[in-house]
Protein: DUF488 domain-containing protein
Organism: Proteiniphilum saccharofermentans
Amino acid sequence: MIRIKRIYDQLGDDDGYRILIDRLWPRGISKENAHVDLWLKEIAPSTELRKWFQHDPAKWEEFGGRYRKELFKEKENLHRIKDLEKEHGNVTLLYAGKDEEHTHALVLLKMLNKKT
């Protein structure tokens, strides 16, 4: 099972393999305390897209479309996440954003679930 979670949330026994999917390291979290097994920066939205979006809910639909286009170029990393799911059972995709309804993690999770 692949799930998403804010990196600031408490570590869970069922998190399994933890993958940070942000391009920038989260503020206030040390690498030792993050419990991140893999930092997959390449799967995050491009810097240009992130700066354009600025977590503006009014841009959410267009952001999703643009990010999906970027993800099509990351097929190797999408397959890598699916392989890690097969290997570890549970995979948790970690992100730092405060807005849980307008996060790239939701777009990525939906895309990964379509590839099941």
Remarks:
- Residues 40 and 46 are 13 Å apart (CA to CA).
- The chain has five helices and four strands.
- The first strand starts at residue 2 and ends at 6.
